[in-house]
Amino acid sequence: SMQCFPGLVLALSSLLGALALLQLSLHLRVPSRYGKHEERLVRPRGRLPARCAWFLQELPSFLVPALLLALRSPPRLEPLGCRLLCCLFCWHYFYRTFIYPFFTRGRPFPLQLLFFGMLFCIYNGFLQGYYLIYCAEYPNDWCTDIRFTSGLLLFLLGMGINIHSDLLLRQLRKPGEVTYKIPQGGLFTYVSGANYFGEIVEWFGFAIATWSLPAFAFAFFTLCCIGPRAYHHHRYYLKTFTDYPKSRKALIPFVF
């Protein structure tokens, strides 16, 4: 049976933090080249339909923790806080794997980015799952701890914003359309990257609820990865649409 190695958790979490800083340095000035930031002059090579790509990319984040849980002997059922935290992570990726891809209307996705996305989801799925299933120690009353309750509320709030914003983005396009329009409604009234803002809030909520290094490293990675993308989306909208609301911020309402 697999055991907990704290050194492994520390090493993998530290590497995740380093990868976050690398992402930030690579994409602060130049956005990742997919979706609205594709280079139009480059001939599309090696792409998958968006639905298939998103499904394949997100699947490991759901399967790897589920597999780790299945392999644990005896099964880890206690404490309740640990079970709930593992369920939160898997719940997000169940939505991302089995629901979100079948409604998305995005452009075909580059295979190279899909490959790196899958690698990350395997890596992070293992780190979060391994820590929660084999290493995490929580008191029996963790569910009433202020860190758990406040983190859970933030997680649910962020997930709600994320799902609602995805729905608003989908409604901008009719089936078969690939043109970009100005997002309206919800938190898009205040920020250009409402869906990204929701996901960042969600994972920082998860980090507070778990109060663990792996979860904080992942929340930091999320911020460094999709924060710059929200900024580049904002610049794209301002450049493309002359009637784009000037009061909107890039990512954080009223601040940035």
TrEMBL record:
Asked whether the UniProt record includes Endoplasmic reticulum among its keywords, one would answer yes
Q: Which InterPro entries match?
A: 3-oxo-5-alpha-steroid_4-DH, 3-oxo-5_a-steroid_4-DH_C, SRD5A/TECR
Which GO cellular component terms are attached? endoplasmic reticulum membrane
Ranges for domain 3-oxo-5-alpha-steroid 4-dehydrogenase C-terminal come to 108-256
A Gene Ontology biological process noted in the UniProt record is:
androgen biosynthetic process
Signal sequence annotation: 1-20
Q: Name one GO molecular function term.
A: 3-oxo-5-alpha-steroid 4-dehydrogenase (NADP+) activity
Which EC class is the enzyme in? oxidoreductase
**Superkingdom classification of source:** Eukaryota
Subcellular localization is given as: Endoplasmic reticulum membrane; Microsome membrane
- Reaction it catalyzes: 5alpha-pregnane-3,20-dione + NADP(+) = progesterone + NADPH + H(+); a 3-oxo-5alpha-steroid + NADP(+) = a 3-oxo-Delta(4)-steroid + NADPH + H(+); 17beta-hydroxy-5alpha-androstan-3-one + NADP(+) = testosterone + NADPH + H(+)
Q: Which PANTHER family match?
A: 3-OXO-5-ALPHA-STEROID 4-DEHYDROGENASE (PTHR10556), 3-OXO-5-ALPHA-STEROID 4-DEHYDROGENASE 2 (PTHR10556:SF37)
Question: What job does this protein perform?
Answer: Converts testosterone (T) into 5-alpha-dihydrotestosterone (DHT) and progesterone or corticosterone into their corresponding 5-alpha-3-oxosteroids. It plays a central role in sexual differentiation and androgen physiology.
What's the protein called, per UniProt? 3-oxo-5-alpha-steroid 4-dehydrogenase 2
